[in-house]
Fold this protein.
Amino acid sequence: MKNIKLIEVPSEIGAGSRGASLGIEAIKIAALDFMSSFFVHFPSEKIPSENKILFEPIDSPYAKRVKGIILMYDKIAKAVSDTIKNNFFPVVLSGDHSNAGATIAGIKMAKPNSKLGIIWIDAHADLHTPYTTPSGNMHGMPLATAINEDNEDCAVHELDEETKKQWDYLKNIGKIAPKVLPEDVVIISLRDYEKEEKHLIDKLGMKVITTNEVRRKGPENIVRSVIRYLSDCTDIYVSFDVDSLDSSISRGTGTPVSNGLREREAEDLISKFMQNRKICCFEITEVNPTLDKENLMAEIAFNILQRSVNILMMN
């Protein structure tokens, strides 16, 4: 049986729209509305945010709030690493998806010799870099930090020395780079990406599974093929961005996209992944209740969280 520890990261400085830092509280409110005592059962650690820098001017246009992101990476990576070293299974509840780069760093710091696989359930590839970003928002970059990629082939920006140094720091945190090989990344429900990201996916041979493929083959077959595809990996991290869900239900997130997963499909996918013993960490991210009248997104996230953790407890 796995000992679960919740790591709460209410940081939203990597996002473009405001409000994702409130996502964790919204999930807790969903738990209360469902009369669930879920949040009483597990030890939890709350990582202090740097959200105050949202009120300060932006220093680097191509890596917005990168100073704060570095502080968050250091804090999150240490918390995740310590959690794993103390034989707990980290379940990370996170504001925006930039934080996932730090989670991955923490896993590698705890298990430097592991061959880490990543299951990235997301409408977006998050493979931009400060050299290619259309927005400068760092929640579009965490996978690039993990695979140690600048994508200079597609560069559209010149970086100043300071930004370059900060970006290099993020890629090399824990003194391990890359943390993950591109062929050990699987992106599920990807449907909104730029040509620069497509270039990397094709060049590096990253596996993409579309929503239609999930629907055609069914979650069980998808899970089986993904686990087989990652069979060389010793550990697997699952990152669930709620915008992987269809925009009809994912209003409560900053970047909703149509043709996404149905709630049941996402829940079945994730809970079936959780049955695999190689799964070493699970993260839910990008719930933004300020965009959501009925707190629907948080309720869906809570259902997935609860079911996944129940399965982890049984394994």
Observations:
- The chain has a mean pLDDT of 97.
- The radius of gyration is 18 Å.
- Residues 4-314 form a domain with the Arginase; Chain A fold (CATH 3.40.800.10).
